[in-house]
C-alpha cells in the first residue's frame, strides 16, 4: 500500500479512487484512475504507489495492461520505477514552472468538458444508430469503408485529423444535415481538448478495433450494437480527457 502521509482517511480515499474499471476501456479508465490519484495528491510527491499485483487487483485489470498504463505515466514524468529492496513505483514531484501543455489548457479553460463529452456521445451514438437503422446504399458503404481504411493507414502525426474525417463521414451518412453540422461543431471542441493530451499508441490501437467493430455493426444493420460500440468508444476518450485535464 502507499506510504503513509499522516492524513486521516488517506488510505480509504486511495482505495476509493482505485476502484475496478468497467469492461471495454480498461487501459483508458485505469489511466484515468491513477492520474486522479496522482493529481489529487492521494499519494504524495515521493510516495509509493501500491505494488503492481495489488494495483492490478484493485483496478481489475491484467498486469500487462497495468504496465502499459505505468509506462505512459513514466513517459509523462509523473512517476518513476525504482528497483531493489526498497524499489517500487514512486510519484515524482511536480515542478513549479509551466509545462508544455499550459497554453493549450488556457485555450480550453472556459470549456465545460463534461457537457462537450456528453453532447458528443449523444450525437455520435445517434449517428451510428441512424446509419445502421436506415441502412447505407453502396456508395455510402464504400465511403464508410474507405474512411475506416484511411484511419488504419494514417501516420501517427496525421491520425487525429483522419480520425475526425472518419467520424464526420459517419455523421454525414446518418441522413440528418443538422446532426452532421452539430457534430462538426462539437468535434472541433473535442479536438481542442485532445490537443492538450498526449497521443497514446495503446489507445489508438484500441480505438481502431472499436472503429472496425462499429463499421461491421453499421453495415450489418445492427442499430443497438452500433450505438453500444460508439458509446463505449466515446467513454474511452472521455476517460483519457478527464484523467489528464480534470
From TrEMBL:
Keyword Heme: no
Keywords, ordered alphabetically: DNA-binding, Transcription, Transcription regulation
Family matches, as PROSITE patterns: HTH_GNTR (PS50949)
Highest taxon in the source lineage: Bacteria
Domain HTH gntR-type, chain residue ranges per copy: 24-94
SUPFAM superfamilies the record matches: GntR ligand-binding domain-like (SSF48008), Winged helix' DNA-binding domain (SSF46785)
Pfam families associated with the record: FCD, GntR
The name this protein goes by in its record: FCD domain-containing protein
